[in-house]
Predict the 3D structure of the following.
Amino acid sequence: YLLRGAELEEAKRAGKHSPRIGDLLIQKSEEGVVVNLMQWDDYTSNFVFPGMMGSHDEKSRAFFASTKVNSVFVHTVGGSSNTFSEHQNKMIGFTHHQKFVVVDAPKEDGTGLELKAFIGGIDLTEGRWDNNTHPLFRTLRCEHKTDAYNGCFLFGRRPVIAGPREPWHDIHSCVTGPEVINIVQAFSERWMSQAPKLSGELINLRNLKLDSPELLWKEGGYCAQTSRSIDGRVNYFDRSARQNETNLRASLMASSAWQIKNEQNTELSRRFESTSGDIKFTRVLDYKKGRPVDSSIHTTMIHHIRRAKHFIYIESQYFMGSSFMWSNSSDRKVKCNNLVPAEITLKICSKIAAGEKFTVYILLPMWPEGVAGSKQVQDILYWQRSTIESMFKKIHAALVHRMQQCNGESIEVSDYLNFYSLGTREAPSTSIRLGIPSSK
């Protein structure tokens, strides 16, 4: 169910639309709404074995098979240089992680339609409904009855419904205004690449008069910019956000759409910049292993880290990178070279040298989703520890140098860099939320 509690009961009484997402999509398609659904195809699943990732893709495939919903199921595509084993591993354990919904909706003032997008990190599947209290046991007989999920423990013969359920500290955002055009473009490019036979099902925003930033402009709210991380294996890069489906494919990666920008002091790297002034999204592409790459998430994070004046706040399931800084020389060969940890470290060191206050807060789970003792999770935690350790060492060296120059000043790494892990404590016997643990 999409709803819980009083909202769910009200939806059931009203009876106009189902509160179940699958039934709701079918209902809307029967009303004449074009519904394009892209779901992860678990490569290990079939109608006998549910699959290693538990994505229920075979059930979804059968559910939508005889409906008007345009449902496609896609998996990760490996590179041409991958061995057979590498290709299989990528198809089994990885996905291009994009989660968003885009709809055309009536404007609040009743003057027509607008585009509205919902984008974030939460999956639209079982066990994900949560609120800011993050219950573990106390909702298993009500809001989470028959809808508990936990991917962090091995339960053996004991059913997951006995708890604890896995809490979700995640964010989903509602986006309106011109920026939704870019989100539509992101979906269209992915759809064109991985569902080319259904490319005619894409909506032409121009026909709906929803392709103009001027018409979609809204006063108030917060300004938003979307970024992404995807490459040419699963994405056709369109040079304009305002093209219709009939001429979209012919223009993809056309020589007139992009011009090469040579970079200095780089190996095997080229950049492509748009030659069109209309581009609002995907303005710069990298070139890696013979394919175009949009790494704007990485670029955007670095840009804003460099602009930060007083603090940085980050929430992430993983935090590892800048392996060239790691203490163990053999670990530096790991392909974990994103610059975010290094940029944060350099920002802090520059603030220390200038004698300015600056604090970075990084919020992580105790361990990423998965069984804590598994090799995959332990590897991630090891690389994460290597990342944090390298940051602390460089910041500590900068602090020592600063204190040598300023006699009597006492400063610590934690004055500038802090890591936190959220935790919910609850007694299964009483289902009562517990307070903050004592330091004794």
Observations:
- The radius of gyration is 24 Å.
- Residues 240-258, 263-282 have pLDDT under 50 and may be disordered.
- Residues 220 and 390 are 42 Å apart (CA to CA).
